[in-house]
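Give me structure tokens for this 370-residue protein.
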Amino acid sequence: MVTAVLPTTLVVPRRRAYLDNLKVTLVACIILGHAFITYADIGEWMYRETASSDAFNLMAGIVVSMGSLFAMGLFFLIAGMLTPGPLRRKGPAGFLKDRATRLGIPFLVYLLLVYPVAEWAGRRDKPVQEYLAGALADPDPGPLWFVGVLLVYSIAYVAWRSFAPGPSRHRDLRPGLLVSLAGAITAGSILVRLEFPIDSVQPFAAHLWQWPQCLALFVLGLMAGEQGWLQPVPRTYQRVGGWASLAAVVVLMAAMATGASIDAFSGGLAWQALLTACCEGIIAVGVSIWLLGLFQRRFDNAGPLATGMGRAAFGAYVLQAPVLLGLALLASGLPIPPEAKFLLVAPAGIAASFALAWLLTRLPGVRRVL
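Here you go.
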């Protein structure tokens, strides 16, 4: 058996400002999306006040559906880029211990306590004890499904590297690899969604219908971290990724405008589902490459505020659900339509999630988890 090769000296990496800024932007967009779901006629959430405005619901549907085609995959790409370095520095045991603390603890606390209580507070249709008891019978960690899946992927990577050594020589990133990844996402999404359509329910809210996107981009991130790819993203790759993604978005939105049932796009062998998977492969890879290049070249500025928010991004993601719920419940009594409540709750939810996460990361014990 070949074990992971460890460095002879410990090198403490500097934070990459562009990744901090990109993570902050992505988390803010995820919180915005969940605020849309709170007030629009889309998706599932623990508290709902559905708007009656067709224009608002259409805008929310476009934002949430288009974001789902790349946002979580980009999170996994970033996580993959930041994985090989810690594994080399800490070794397999130290790396897994760190991941179990930083990912496993929030996942379990959310699964067994936070999300069941939040669902009870948002619905109040039965005693809180029934929600807590149902946490194991029907496990749902809410938005922390991402954390649980990332822990599974991380363990698999350590096992893989324990048997297969890292690359012995540097290889350049070829355009064909990115095209192949887009094709793999397309093919994988088609196959998975034959059984698990978009927005279908699985134990632990595993989002299996998104796994082809998430796994492919995590693997790309791992390869980039090992080979030094995407640092920086070549300008040609960035431009092609951006234009290809824009074309895919236009094609997909045109298909949705034909009036076909949304279920036709969710899975199966209907042409709408096949087109969705194809466009998702292009968008997931193309937008990720475009955004990485954009933030490297335009938003690589470090400073106390940017560094602090970057450090708090994971905590803000973890805290977003109870924060949004609390703000939505506070706003529930206001004599204004749901669309107006969204305009209050969405920015307040983003600000409060980051502020609370920043305060918590100042505490020594909490810093190891958030």
